[in-house]
Amino acid sequence: MAKPGRPGARKTKKGATAGTGGHGRKALEGKGPTPKAEDRSWHVAGKRKAAKERLDAARARAGKTDAPAKRAPRPKKADEGELVTGRNSVVEALRAKIPATTLYVAARVEMDDRVKEALSIATKRGIPVLEVMRPELDRMSGHDAVHQGLALKVPPYEYAHPFDLVERAHETGRPPLIVALDGVTDPRNLGAIIRSAGAFGAHGVIVPQRRSVGMTASAWKTSAGAAVRVPVAMAANLTQTLQALKKEGLFVLGLDGGGDTSLPGITFADRPIVIVVGSEGKGLSRLVTENCDAIVSIPISSDTESLNAGIAVSVALYEVAKLRAES
Questions:
Q1: Could you tell me if 215 and 260 are in contact, meaning their C-beta atoms sit under 8 angstroms apart?
Q2: Distance, CA of 150 to CA of 179 (rounded, Å)
Q3: Cβ contact 316:296 at 8 Å
Q4: How far apart are CA 131 and CA 88, in angstroms?
Q5: 234 has which bridge partners?
Q6: What is the pLDDT of residues 16-58, one digit of tens each?
Q7: Cα 307 vs. chain centroid, distance in angstroms?
Q8: Residues 308, 311, 317, CA angle at the centre, nearest 5°?
Q9: Closest CA to 270 of 179, 165, 175, 198
Q10: pLDDT digits (tens, 9 = 90+) for 87-134
Q11: Which candidate, 321, 71, 74, 32, places its Cα nearest to that of 203?
């Protein structure tokens, strides 16, 4: 009599059974030892090793295996212009017809006479008016600026080449009369010099690329509209530019309180002239002084120590214009 089976027990046949044929043999062998971290391409150590290998290869190609690699200089951002902030400043800039690309107005700004005038002038001149939220206007203006809900975008000034001023003079048929600035950093002085240059027939103003003021909104405003008529050129190196102008036949005249030539009655006013003026504190630099054909002083009262750059250039331009008219 057969034994009764256990409830739930699996019934199997005794004897040999069919095998797998060795299909799982490789799985039983394992994957071997775990590779080092630096040998794993996806690991941080592996990425660091690959970067070092690329760096060593680049140094070997450059022939500087022992020298540390130099980081490539970051490209300079293009000048995006200037942002004039504040209701009074914006209105004055618009009144002075400073070139502008956009007038930014804060949302729900309080409409007073200045805001209304700014909107009116911008509309008449065809300047786009954009309404922005105050947080965005705060970010654009910077933490230290007080925009009062108004900001005006002024585009970068397009400087001329110094020799463009000489060509401009030849087109007028008059001897070139150019003003060059050496270390002048106050934009109001630049604006005043441009205004005097326009009043006394100068053909342009040259500013150095470094350690000098540029054409800002403040300079535009101080020029009282003369910046539209008088071009401003930028010199990469003022000393080399003066040397090049001298080769073109221009006479370089430096203004300095200790000059050996007095301004009234100078005998070379009818020649092509470049008038160079330095900063009020330091005056002309040594290299610029060495490249001047003459150093001219303006007689002033002993109670006055010196004249600022704007006034000194105005006096010199007036004297040259008067002597040229008399000749």
A1: no
A2: 35
A3: yes
A4: 19
A5: 207
A6: 556 555 565 665 565 667 777 777 776 667 766 776 776 677 6
A7: 30
A8: 135
A9: 175
A10: 888 888 888 788 889 999 998 888 889 999 999 999 999 999 999 998
A11: 321
